[in-house]
Design brief:
Strand content: under 5%
Number of helices: 18
Helix content: over 70%
GO molecular function, one term: L-amino acid transmembrane transporter activity
CATH topology: Amino acid/polyamine transporter I
Oligomer: single chain
Number of domains: 1
Subcellular location: Membrane
CATH superfamily: Amino acid/polyamine transporter I
Membrane topology: Multi-pass membrane protein
Shape: globular
Radius of gyration: 22 Å
Distance between the termini: 18 Å
Protein name: APC family permease
Pfam family, one: AA_permease_2
CATH architecture: Up-down Bundle
Order of helices and strands: HHHHHHHHHHHHHHHHHH
Structural class: mainly alpha
Length: 437
Amino acid sequence: MSDSKKNQLKKSLGLSFNIAVLIGGTIGVGILRTPGTIAGLLDNYWLIIASWLFGGLFVLIGANSYAELATMLPKAGGSYNYIKRAFGEYAGFLSGWFDYITNVIPPAFYCIVISEYIIILFPSLESYSTTIAISLLIAFVLLHLSGVKNGSAIQQITSFIKVICFVALVIACFMYAGVKLPPIQKDNSFFQIGLIFGFFKSLQLIIGTYNGWNGVCFFAEENDNPSKNIPRSLYSGVLLVIAIYVLLNIAFFHVLPIETLAKSNLAAADVANIIFGKNGAIIVTVISIFSLISILNAFMMIPPRILYGLSRDGFFIEKGTIVNKGGTPIVALLVSSVFSLFLICIGSFEVLFSFAAFTSIIVWGLAYFSLLKLRISEPDLPRPYRSFWYPWTTILAIIVSLALLIGFIYSDPKSFVIILGITVVSYPLFLVLTRKK
């Protein structure tokens, strides 16, 4: 009994951390890069804005379902707890490992990208890219080994600075007295086949930039009042992210016409160069670094929580449940960091990221299904929060998830084959682990 007490996570996180981890774990460099690509795909001002709103609405509907699930089962590890409860041990095991892989890839990627941005500011460090990335990883491991409160403080500070930077960029764009909004195109080009494909391709990119919106659910067990804090933070955080994304797109179009923006690989830098002159690129680089430090900190905290939950349920080594005095699942953190170190040294992310986009949609879809199942199979389970317009909002979330999954299978069949392969291999491994239990 004392051992289980010793290895419990501490209830030391509150509403401000929840909002910070949602914003910090969602808003990254994607929003600074993707507007140009999407402008090239859609070439219609209103359609572009509508796409960002549609992506945000999908996430908001998802947040509505997750708010009920996370308050009903406030356990470390998030999604897989709900899937396991609804569909049994194997479904929990598979979705838990899919979710872990999805969330353990980003820290290595962000360490490398931050090192690349630091080199833009200090070109003399060019030959030290991998060294900087590994040093960043070690620094964040040490920070999180020191305890949850320090990680929480860094999350809140960096997320606040990030929001201020983005708001300042939006204001600067609107104060610029150059090119006004492009004329609204009144043709029916939306119904061209190429544009319909472009719309779905854009949605894939947009949902990628919204990824991380359910980060608060991984920390439900450590929250001092999950019943109130989780729904509040999910809604307020998601709405704030939608507002920033839509306003930033409108602001970019205020400075540059669609035709120009469509040719841009880093839209924010091109816009900043017009507003701030030669210093524009430096300003965007600094915003990028703050965005990435905040998102890196969030993703250093998420995978250990999933691994802790998997370990507690016998789906990983027993030592994975060890929690230090500061409330950090120490073995889970170290295992995840070794995996990140390995990925930094390999440095190949394209395959892993397309794989991660797949697995996140599968896990979200299964979580929505589990809400329907648990409402039927366990109607008396305490539900401090009930999702509004149930079951229609949940069914809509499932339909959109399935449509996106079909789109991903069409655009990236290789990753789908890998997922099928992992699923086949996973069942014998699950049987071995359950026998040990």
